[in-house]
Amino acid sequence: MSAIEVSGLRKTYRRAFRRTGIEALRGVDLTVPEGSAFGLIGPNGAGKTTFIKAILGIVRPTAGAVKVLGGSPEDPRIRARIGYLPERLHLPHAWTSTAFLHTVAKLKGLQPDRAAQLRLLERVGLAHAVDQRIGGYSKGMRQRLGLAAALVGSPSLLVLDEPTDGIDPMGRVEVRSILQEEVRRGTTLFLNSHLLAETERVCDRVAILADGRVLREGRLEDLARSGARWAVRFAPGADAEALGAAGFQSVGSEGLFHVEATDPAALNAALDKARAAGALLVELKRDGQDLEAVLTSTMGAAA
User: Which residue intervals of the chain bear CATH 3.40.50.300?
Assistant: First the structure.
């Protein structure tokens, strides 16, 4: 089953006194598998936030179809199963965190549970600030409270727009751990973040959105693969000339080489030649790109 199904999604924002509008989304087709950790990446102005608002029923598409958790995002029963952290989080400064979570629970049609609220606040690192007014919170603390609000009711789908904005590096580790726990629980995670390293650590699938269109989509490991090239590290003392004759190319770092191998048999044949030359293998991995390189190459190809 798919947690999110979008087909032919278009959104045009009309401009006053002008015949033409601004096309934020230009026919997006996208499916997010249930239980996956899915990342949406792309440059500023790509349409990412508009896409999120469309799947949440906050904005109505100009054309196309949107299905979330098997139903309409405008259905209150579906909305109650979604946890959402917006990019720009506005919180009531005069309230306490428990009062805010109480209201979130009521809006979801849930019976407020103070004990559950306190457990959530402890989970996101706000146990020390339970009785403090939100107006005295730092930006990072407000983000943590927003995450706690998104987790109210153990949602089936978490939609998070820049969840670690304003949070320090150690806090990002904590947030990442919480998100990974939710995915293991079976929650579908849909993440939009400009912090590509964070997306890479959390998500198993990504889509690249640019100019209102999806340019690439798939499993992160598949998008990051670099053909048939492997990265191989040998112990110090390996004969570089002999390795070169066996098809290994030095990449500058001591002991690190690249080798082209289209299948396991070709890879093992090359490694056998290296061992025959006296080289000792200490590391082997498929040579792939990080998410930043995937995004850059995709944008370059689309230009």
Answer: 2-221
Torsions phi, psi of 286, nearest 5? -65, 135
**Rg of the Cα trace of the chain?**
24
Task: Give, in degrees to the nearest 5, the angle at Cα 188 between 69 and 92.
Answer: 90
Q: How does pLDDT run across 12-64, given as a tens digit for each residue? A: 998 777 777 889 999 999 999 999 999 999 998 999 999 999 999 999 999 99
Structure tokens at 96: 């306490």
CATH topology of domain 225-288: Alpha-Beta Plaits (3.30.70)
CB 68 within 8 A of CB 83: no
SS3 113: coil
Which of 42, 30, 41, 40 is closest to 67 using CA atoms? 30
- The second-level CATH assignment, the architecture, of 2-221 is 3-Layer(aba) Sandwich (3.40)
Residue 69 to residue 204: CA distance in whole angstroms = 19
Condensed to tens digits (0 to 9), the pLDDT of residues 123-137 reads: 999 999 998 999 999
CB 61 within 8 A of CB 122: no
